């Protein structure tokens, strides 16, 4: 069983990348989805027919859920034994610790592939400063970086971010083109490159993950587009605390839709169906009492 880690900070586009990879490769995958909150949202979006979704919620597989994480991998191996297991961490866990946790599993049939890290260039500069340890850990221990959300950035801005990344790890391959334009062959090559057997680089910090708070709720009271728009603007403006990530499924004016909020930007799009409304918000100093009234 080959394991591919698709890492990246909150909202970098990990789930979208996994969906695109599944579309381009005619293979059966198991996806282990690690949600920081106690309600999973991303698993609902991974609806490709060749994906078998396993969810681990309310914790981080690099630390608090370390034991459950290793047990889940062992169970997936024994019950399904897929050719490929794709792991999507929470977006706040340290990649070095996750790799170490997998290496502790005593099974010669498990092979770790070279990890992929996605970076949202619209929030990179602020998040690099605020969550420096996370980005250094990911960039020191990943095999390939894919820059996302390139649409509104100039060539100059993209090159500046690329150079900042290379200052941390000058051996990295950094992709600055939209991966959705890549041929199927490129996605297949990802699944054939093993991780280097180097010592994990984590000497720069004793911290294992970022401490943020998560709020989640089902049965959302947002019923109209005006109500949803007002709520999202309040999140961006800091009315409910410092929000780094929000995502959810809502039924607006009788139609299902999903929204994503990263940093100070949000987007909404329709979906055909859903199991029910739900929302997840991750940040600092969250106003939990007012969020409960959503």
From TrEMBL:
Residues 4-175 form the CobW/HypB/UreG nucleotide-binding domain. Belongs to the SIMIBI class G3E GTPase family. ZNG1 subfamily. Pfam families: cobW, CobW_C. It catalyses: GTP + H2O = GDP + phosphate + H(+). Gene3D superfamilies: CobW-like, C-terminal domain (3.30.1220.10), P-loop containing nucleotide triphosphate hydrolases (3.40.50.300). The keyword Hydrolase applies. It comes from Fusobacterium vincentii 4_1_13. This is GTP-binding protein.
């Amino acid at each position: 069983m080959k394991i591919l880690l698709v890492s990246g900070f909150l909202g970098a586009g990990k789930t979208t990348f996994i969906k695109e990879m599944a579309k381009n490769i005619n293979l059966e995958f198991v996806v282990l989805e690690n949600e920081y909150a106690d309600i999973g949202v991303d698993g609902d979006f991974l609806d490709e027919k060749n994906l078998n979704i396993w969810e681990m919620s309310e914790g981080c597989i690099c630390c608090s859920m370390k034991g459950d994480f290793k047990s889940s991998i062992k169970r997936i191996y024994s019950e399904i034994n897929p050719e490929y297991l794709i792991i999507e961490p929470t977006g706040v866990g340290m990649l070095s610790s996750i790799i170490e946790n997998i290496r502790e599993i005593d099974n010669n049939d498990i092979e770790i592939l070279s990890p992929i890290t996605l970076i949202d260039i619209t929030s990179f500069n602020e998040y690099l400063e605020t969550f420096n340890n996370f980005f250094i850990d990911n960039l020191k221990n990943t095999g390939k970086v894919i820059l996302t959300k390139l649409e509104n950035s100039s060539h100059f801005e993209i090159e500046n971010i690329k150079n900042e990344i290379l200052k941390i790890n000058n051996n990295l391959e950094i992709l600055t083109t939209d991966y959705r334009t890549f041929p199927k062959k490129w996605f297949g090559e990802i699944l054939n490159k093993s991780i280097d057997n180097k010592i994990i680089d984590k000497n720069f910090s004793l911290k294992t993950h970022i401490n943020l708070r998560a709020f989640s709720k089902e049965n959302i009271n947002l019923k109209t587009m005006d109500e949803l728009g007002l709520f999202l603007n309040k999140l961006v403006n800091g009315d409910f605390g410092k929000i780094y990530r929000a995502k959810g499924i809502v039924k607006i004016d009788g139609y299902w839709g999903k929204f994503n909020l990263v940093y100070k930007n949000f987007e909404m799009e329709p979906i055909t169906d859903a199991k029910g409304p739900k929302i997840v918000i991750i940040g600092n100093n969250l106003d939990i009492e007012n969020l409960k009234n959503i």
